[in-house]
Amino acid sequence: MDKIINVTDLPYKMRGSKKIIDWINCDKERVSFNYNGVTGVIIVSFIERTNGGVKLLVSYNNKSVEMYNSNLIKGKIGVLIGQHSKEHKYKVGQKINNVTILKQIRKKDARNNNILAYVVKCNETGKEFV
Asked: DSSP letter string over the chain?
């Protein structure tokens, strides 16, 4: 599916002969997007320049998140528009596929990204797993 952010809606400046996005002058800029069939307009504003890039405030339907400009360009707006959740799907004590959820945790995957995980107990053997 597509994750398209129309960055041509953002202000530009010239650096030599190259045209680049002028992130610092972004102030409530309206940017259209198409994220897996969901289309709309997000509002982008500059917050601060950091060692990691430029931090932006991105808003959609009365919900706002802070993100780096690189994540905006990559189309990482799923949480903002409600396509992804940062919350666990299952509750503690819930039984799913012969296991019981004991604890909700966050851990790092092989690429050092934060992921949602669970500590579960097998209902047949009584063993606990992450």
From this structure: --EEE-GGGS-EEEETTEEEE-GGG-SSEEEEEEETTEEEEEEEEEEEEETTEEEEEEEETTEEEEEEHHHHHTT--HHHHTSS-SS-SS-TT-EETTEEEEEEEEEE-TTS-EEEEEEEEETTT--EE-
